[in-house]
Amino acid sequence: MAAPMEPITTIDVLRHGACEGGEIYRGSIDVELSPEGWQQMNAAVDALGNWQRVMTSPLARCHQFAERYASNATLPFEVDNRFREIGFGEWEGRQVKEVWQSEPDLIRAYYDNPASATPPAGEPILDVQARIVSAWESLLGRYTGERILLVVHSGVIRLLLAHLLKMPLTSISTLDVPYACITRLKVFHHSDGNVPVLLSHNPILTNVL
User: Measuring CA to CA, which residue among 13, 12, 19 is closest to residue 64?
Assistant: First the structure.
């Protein structure tokens, strides 16, 4: 008698598209997608599909698209607050260029080694990664074997990949995560633990999907 096949969970992680407000630090503040952002996300999912469920960050730039997509596709829809973006504290809403000009030493330290530097009144990066990993493990535990669309943020994607691929946090700023980027992951569920495999990242550029 053949041994039963171990389940595989497939997660397509979609970053939100371009937002209103330009190039600002928009971690925990709630801003909406621009018309271009809607177009980017629609184009990103057009060639994919076959998901069984949609999960999302609570923030509007993810939530609104995810909810509409799930409704149109008649899929279960769920919001997990733990998948929200990094809280940038006093940098929230400020132009990226202006912050780099006004606080060059702190922001350079933050990008070089985020575990040792935090924006004023911001969320420590290790705390952010811990809540993201908690949400990820909860997702895998509840929906083992499913095919899931997860709509989140660039910081969430970088920190999740760092955890799954065992990358040092000093390397996360080298990961390019453009608007409407899709990262495809498969998780093989073995009796001795889960084994995540990165199948593709940003296929719009690499044309691997």
Answer: 19
Instruction: Yes or no: say if 144 and 52 are a contact pair by the CB < 8 Å rule.
Output: no
Among all chains, which residue has been given the structure tokens 């065992």?
Answer: 166
| Three-state DSSP state, 131 | helix
Cα(55)–Cα(19) distance, rounded to whole angstroms? 20
Between CA 130 and CA 160 the distance in angstroms is 10
The C-alpha angle 102, 107, 108, rounded to 5 degrees, equals 115
Q: With left for phi above 0 and alpha for psi between -120 and 50, is residue 113 left, alpha or beta?
A: beta
CB neighbour list of residue 207: distance below 8 Å, 6 or more residues apart: none
pTM: 0.93
Question: Alpha-carbon distance 35 to 33, whole Å?
Answer: 7
Place of tokens 């550029």: 205
Judge residue 136's burial from the number of C-beta atoms within 10 Å of its C-beta, 0-12 exposed, 13-18 middle, 19 or more buried.
Answer: buried
Is residue 11 within 8 Å of residue 187, measured between CB atoms? yes
Under DSSP, the state recorded for 33 is: B
pLDDT tens for 110-156 read: 999 999 999 999 999 999 999 999 999 999 999 999 999 999 999 99
Q: Which domains does the chain have, with CATH numbers?
A: 8-206 (3.40.50.1240)
